[in-house]
Amino acid sequence: MNPPRPKPKLDAENRAFWTGGADGKLLIVHCDDCGQWTHPPRVLCRHCQSENVAPTPVPGTGEIDTLTVNHQPWAKDLEVPFVIARVKLDGAEGVYLTTNIVGSPVDEVQFGDRVRVVFEQQDEIFYPLFEKAS
Amino acid sequence: MAREAYITGVGQSEVGVRLPRHPLLLTLDAAREAVADAGLTFDQIDGVFSFPGKAAGYLAFSPVGTEDVIEALGIKSKWQMGAMEQPAQLAAIAMAAWAVKEGICRHVLCFRTVYEAGGMAQPEIYMPARSEGVSGASQWTSPFWATSAACWTAQYANRHVHKYGMTREQLGQIAINGSKNAMLNPRARAITKEELTLDKYMSARMISSPLCLYDCDRFSDASTVIIVSAGDALDEIKATPIRIAATAGSVDRYSWDQVEWPAAYETGADLWKRTDYTVDDVDTVQFYDGFAFLPITWLEGLGFVGKGEGHKFIEGGSRIARDGELPMNTAGGQLGAGRLHGFGFAHEAVTQLRKAAGERQIPGDPKVAVATSGGGPMAAALLLARD
């Protein structure tokens, strides 16, 4: 049994990202003026500084940009190995998420794999993990 | 002609694991050695600069602040600076150089004290209190158990494996080279007790692929002090001054996962825009190696080799050996000589340029060195020259 995941402290900027999974949505801050995406989430657009921004659903699919197989148990009873990956999100140009790839043996996870989000709930937080799409 | 800045003194405490000596006393040891090296006394010091300043919530990481040093050493400071929000560790020395060039200070004491091993033995004093949750940059990695910079660096390293064909045998040369040099460094005795072989490296347990145990530096207790002096104050100095010929640092995004390339590439390119020296002039490099992949990013970022070629350059280890074309991490680096957190690279660069490195001294007449610090989205570098 894995220990509980480190829990993000919710605030005005990050709440939508960490709780959007309750509605099955992966929410990334989108600018309604310039159309670009800001992640980590902010109360303004990091490209044009517009305040006309809102957490906006993205498809929840993407591609593994890079990954590592982690073997070190960083917490007591943490089950290893597991995959930590950086996923390049579809539909949100320039945004990457660090995440875990679940549902596949670690040696079957490769660079360039197509993945889709699966949310893991722990209290009010919905952690966006990813699994292989095919 | 504009005033120049020089490193005029270097000092280091004992380097150990769980040293009983109080970190302020380790700082005193290093400071005494550095001012004596320069030929100065504490009352001639008029500035104190550090990275990252006292970390009140995590004293093991940085147990001593500039104000502790000013108080304890009786320094009359005209300017002080200790901050985490700098491009990287060596940025504190770069800023000291600007302070003396500007005429604000004549002799600045720059220090980095770490107590990350001893601190774990006294967690109630030195370790962070259990927190209610993660915030800031770590909230984007820790929830996925990417709690260590090892995991973040590993993802960059693994991309080199995937995209450019880097092998473990190649990567391992950083730690192997470090251990060989550390064996000749009296201050590394507590960290490296025997030379690392390729066999031993290849059979080490994995931490976060492709980084194994020997690719990660080890928590240490130590203080390193660098004295930076104004060019018009050199008549007070007895040691060979080493000129700070250029400084560079950069942070594009304060994020390990939203940048395509580590900041070493931008900082590396910037360093050469501020000097007439080129990579061909460099006699030795002291590259931050908190994780073994980072020196590869500096080799590429500074343009010693092209992007994606760093691992080929270090293959077999002969080019970066003490008698190779580009001697690297000649005191052992952090992998071999302990996690001094950046300042050790400036210390060793100066020591080599003064030809004072004893058994580990590189051959010839070294005049130019690069010292670097940082990793991922943060980077700072110094170009040092003996005139």
Kindly report the average pLDDT value of chain B.
97
Question: How is the quaternary structure best described?
Answer: heterodimer
CATH class of chain B: Alpha Beta
Percent in helix of chain A: under 10%
Account of the protein in words:
The complex is a heterodimer of chains A (about 130) and B (about 375). Chain A has about 130 residues and is mainly beta. Chain A has one domain. Chain A has 1 helix and 8 strands; from the N terminus they run αββββββββ. In chain A, the strands form 2 sheets. Chain A has a 5-stranded mixed barrel. The longest helix of chain A is centred in the N-terminal third of the chain and has 5 residues. Chain A starts with 14 loop residues before the first helix and ends with a strand. The mean pLDDT of chain A is about 95. Chain B is of the alpha/beta class and about 375 residues long. Chain B has one domain: Thiolase/Chalcone synthase (Peroxisomal Thiolase, Chain A, domain 1). In chain B, the strands form 2 sheets. Chain B has a 9-stranded mixed sheet, sandwiched between helices. A two-stranded antiparallel sheet of chain B has the order 5-6. In chain B, strand 2, helix 2 and strand 3 form a beta-alpha-beta unit. The longest helix of chain B is centred in the first third of the chain and has 16 residues. The radius of gyration of chain B is 19 Å and the shape is globular. The chains are: A mainly beta (about 130), B alpha/beta (about 375). The interface between A and B is large, with 37 and 36 residues.
